[in-house]
Amino acid sequence: MYYPKSQIITNKYTNGKEFALVTTNQEYIGYYWQTSNNKFYTGRTPDDITVVELKKITVTDSLLVSNQNIVSYNNISSNKIYNNFKQIDSLKALLVPTYYQPQPTQQDYQIGEFRRYFVKKTNELLYIEVSKETYEAILNKDSKWVWYDYFAFNIPWQITGNKLQVAKTNNNIVDLTMKNLSLTKFNLYLRDDYTKFYK
């Protein structure tokens, strides 16, 4: 199946209650891709070995699939069809990164800087500041987390010294990080606030 790259969105993911397989009406959990004319298919891309068309679940469909097996497609652990709800429940229970407000310690202020940790959704322009523990879980591909949907990175952040110099240093760090890691509009996520946590 071939579609020009400009006409598809790949590597999307659904946790269920959104799509059903056109062929069997079974609810679908896993990766999917979308065409420009709003058609949906299983898999990460059109190049996947097995591609099945999906349809949006309606109220009627929900009643039809409620007593059927749920199909889950996951390239990370190879293609599988899960036929019991306990396995589906464990899949749904995977941890997702949430926002964390860092609090520099007194020691951080004595040093003059600390680390800030972030994740970016791999297929969306979505950034989240997270704790060091969450950052490490995503970075280390912890199986309890949906690590495959996120890219983890960190930056040093200056918090003491001449205020103008602090702002300039942090601005330069952000610009360099955006360039090196191709992080579009990361500065907007930070609201260009380069003296945050300054004291």
Topology of helices and strands:
Layout: E1 8-21, E2 27-35, E3 40-42, E4 53-56, H1 59-65, E5 71-73, H2 85-92, H3 106-111, E6 113-121, E7 127-130, H4 132-139, E8 150-158, H5 163-181, H6 186-189
Parallel strand pairs: 2-5
Antiparallel strand pairs: 1-2, 1-4, 2-3, 3-4, 6-7, 6-8
List keywords for this structure.
single chain, 199 residues, alpha+beta, 2 domains, 6 helices, 26% helix, elongated
Could you describe the 3D structure shown?
- The protein has two domains: 5-92, no CATH class; 106-189, no CATH class.
- The chain contains six helices and eight strands.
- The chain has helices at 59-65, 85-92, 106-111, 132-139, 163-181, 186-189, and strands at residues 8-21, 27-35, 40-42, 53-56, 71-73, 113-121, 127-130, 150-158.
- Strands 1, 2, 3, 4 and 5 form a five-stranded mixed β-sheet that branches. A three-stranded antiparallel β-sheet has the order 7-6-8, sandwiched between helices.
- Strand 6 and strand 7 form a beta hairpin.
- The radius of gyration is 21 Å and the shape is elongated.
Shape: elongated
Question: What portion of residues is helical?
Answer: 25-40%
Poorly predicted parts: 60-91
Supply the helix-strand structural class.
alpha+beta
Total number of beta strands: 8
Please provide the ordered H/E string of secondary-structure elements.
EEEEHEHHEEHEHH
User: How much is the radius of gyration in Å?
Assistant: 21 Å
Domain module tally: 2
Please outline the major beta sheet: 5 strands, mixed
Q: Please work out how many helical segments DSSP would assign.
A: 6
Regarding quaternary structure, what we see is single chain
What percentage of amino acids are in beta strands?
25-35%
- How far is it from the N-terminal to the C-terminal residue, by CA? 57 Å
Mean pLDDT: 83
